[in-house]
């Protein structure tokens, strides 16, 4: 189906050596060759979509962080037949003492679809770095899962994040998730950069595809938190179908701890996790000057204490820098408003999805332009974040392969393949990012980079570690 182009591989390495000698200053466009078959959705009767047995059995179980520090967990699930109970029973490993937390239920209608009973329950004040078991569906049928809370927040706490975007529910989506699960560098939390189920690509935005997607990701998302941002496929705005409330399925199904960071909306918020401070932004909610999102971020950025959380990570759905033709410059308005702050506050890395391919930037900025001075070319800037586009989870719309030429100087590496990323924070100065293309299995990194923390190690530039 796909093959590695040997000549291309040799050329890449050649260019890399040359670039060290500064004879070849441009970035890498991978010569990897694949066929461009559209990836098909897994059939509705696939194993990954199976409904768990038992009357009213909880399904689509998923967790996310439930507070600002990592001592809280939000557990969400759906009961199909009757409301049942929104209570979660939980207990620490090696403890007989079961505690309970009570949640709430949401239901919604979309065109002629009626949702099951969607439960959200926040568990607070857990111990750090502890394995907990939990049980949902108190009543007719119960199911048990577990999770591990993160270590206490601190500057040198190692932590490993998985990066997945634009996942959908195709055979490639399943490959991406499987490779993430099998990756020898074990991700402890997924930062999901938006576009979840792609239900809106079906007639009437068939919301059953939201349910199948929830069952598909349960095998991972019930055991480790996934952090959400809304993509364009979460908008589900369809006035022609009488659906005029944007984000209706998404907000009913995915509950996030926005209030814990003084946000007034689930679309933008922040969490701390180990040595990282993670800011979630929304590409599809107003973000211009004076809007609630803007006002929140004005207050939020100065609150980040890099002595406590050295790693400042931002993510949203639409990339600010992308050199693919598809979606070209869609992130430009957000870039014009926010890029200067990302540089000023020395954000380490900005992740995004949307473009169904992979790309990593150099540390570049483009913030000097003032309409009349003509300074509108991106320049090398060691205070700038690295921008990583990772919208390559594998959805039914397929890859985008058409790139702008020549490759712009800000673009360090680009390749149109499905895959996932791992951000492995080692300590306050060093983190390692690897991108794993699906075709090579889980263990091979097609692109990787050592990130030097912008606050603690600003003198060190990031360098390519391996190909
Ligand atoms: C999805 O991947 C899992 C884990 O590799 C596998 O067990 C399952 O059979 C796959 N399902 C489909 C429909 O490909
Ligand atoms: C909704 O309408 C579509 C198209 O008419 C139909 O195929 C589907 O079965 C309906 N679903 C429900 C739950 O009525
Ligand atoms: C489910 O549990 C409720 C409350 O315990 C009970 O009234 C009901 O009969 C049960 N339903 C089934 C199908 O077992
Ligand atoms: C930043 O965090 C450190 C370590 O937790 C703490 O000692 C310091 O007081 C904090 N600084 C501010 C301004 O809160
Ligand atoms: C790629 O993009 C260029 C520039 O927009 C366009 O001219 C060309 O037709 C596109 N090629 C394909 C195969 O889509
Ligand atoms: C931080 O991690 C890097 C990479 O593992 C290592 O080389 C460096 O020595 C570590 N720094 C400290 C202070 O341990
Ligand atoms: Fe997408």
From TrEMBL:
The lineage of its organism: Eukaryota, Viridiplantae, Streptophyta, Embryophyta, Tracheophyta. Gene3D superfamilies: 3.60.21.10, Purple acid phosphatase-like, N-terminal. GO terms for cellular component: plant-type cell wall. The keyword Nucleus does not apply. Pfam families: Metallophos (PF00149), Metallophos_C (PF14008), Pur_ac_phosph_N (PF16656). It is an enzyme of class 3 (hydrolase). It catalyses: a phosphate monoester + H2O = an alcohol + phosphate. Residues 1-26 form the signal peptide. Its cofactor is Fe cation; Zn(2+). SUPFAM superfamilies: Metallo-dependent phosphatases, Purple acid phosphatase, N-terminal domain. Its EC number is 3.1.3.2. The gene is LOC108991386. This is Purple acid phosphatase. Keywords: Glycoprotein, Hydrolase, Iron, Metal-binding, Signal, Zinc. One of its GO terms (biological process) is cellular response to phosphate starvation. Belongs to the metallophosphoesterase superfamily. Purple acid phosphatase family. Residues 57-152 form the Fibronectin type-III domain. It comes from Juglans regia (English walnut). GO terms for molecular function: acid phosphatase activity; metal ion binding. InterPro entries: Calcineurin-like_PHP, FN3_dom, Metallo-depent_PP-like, MPP_PAP, PAPs-like, PAPs_C, PAPs_N, Purple_acid_Pase-like_N.
């Amino acid at each position: 189906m796909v093959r590695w182009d040997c000549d291309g591989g040799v050329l890449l390495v050649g260019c890399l050596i040359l670039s060290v000698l500064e004879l070849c200053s441009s970035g890498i466009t991978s010569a990897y060759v694949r066929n461009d078959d559209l990836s098909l959705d897994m059939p509705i009767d696939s194993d990954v979509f199976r409904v768990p047995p038992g009357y009213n059995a909880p399904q689509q179980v998923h967790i996310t962080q439930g507070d600002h520090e990592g001592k809280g967990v939000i557990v969400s699930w759906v009961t199909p037949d009757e409301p049942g109970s929104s209570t979660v029973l939980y207990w620490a490993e090696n403890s007989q003492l079961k505690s309970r937390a009570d949640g709430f239920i949401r239901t919604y209608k979309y065109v002629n679809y009626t949702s099951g009973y969607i439960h959200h329950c926040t568990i607070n004040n857990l111990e750090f770095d502890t394995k907990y078991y939990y049980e949902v569906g108190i009543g007719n049928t119960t199911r048990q899962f577990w999770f591990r809370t993160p270590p206490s927040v601190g500057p040198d706490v190692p932590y490993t994040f998985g990066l997945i975007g634009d996942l959908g529910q195709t055979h490639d989506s399943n490959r991406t998730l499987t490779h993430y699960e099998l990756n020898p560098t074990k991700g402890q939390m997924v930062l999901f950069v938006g576009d979840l189920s792609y239900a809106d690509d079906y007639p009437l935005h068939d919301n059953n595809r939201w349910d199948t997607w929830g069952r598909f990701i349960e095998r991972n998302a019930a055991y480790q938190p996934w952090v959400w941002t809304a993509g364009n496929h979460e908008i589900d705005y369809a006035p022609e179908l009488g659906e005029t409330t944007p984000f209706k399925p998404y907000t009913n199904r995915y509950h996030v701890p926005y209030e814990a960071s003084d946000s007034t909306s689930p679309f933008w918020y922040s969490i701390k996790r180990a040595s990282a401070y993670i800011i979630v932004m929304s590409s599809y909610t107003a973000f211009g000057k004076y809007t609630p999102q803007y006002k929140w971020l004005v207050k939020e950025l100065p609150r980040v204490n890099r002595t406590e959380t050295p790693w400042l990570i931002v993510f949203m759905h639409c990339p600010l820098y992308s050199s693919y033709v598809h979606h070209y410059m869609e992130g430009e308005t957000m870039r014009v408003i926010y890029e200067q702050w990302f540089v000023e506050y020395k954000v380490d890395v900005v992740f995004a999805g949307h473009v169904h391919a992979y790309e990593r930037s150099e540390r570049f900025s483009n913030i000097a332009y003032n309409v009349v001075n003509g300074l509108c070319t991106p320049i090398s800037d060691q205070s700038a974040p690295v921008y990583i586009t990772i919208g390559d989870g594998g959805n039914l719309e397929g890859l985008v392969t058409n790139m702008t030429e020549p490759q712009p100087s800000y673009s360090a590496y680009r390749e149109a393949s499905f895959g996932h990323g791992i951000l492995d924070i080692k300590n306050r100065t060093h983190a390692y990012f690897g991108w794993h293309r699906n075709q090579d299995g889980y263990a091979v990194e097609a692109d990787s980079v050592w990130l030097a923390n912008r606050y603690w190690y600003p003198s060190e530039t990031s360098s390519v570690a391996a190909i």
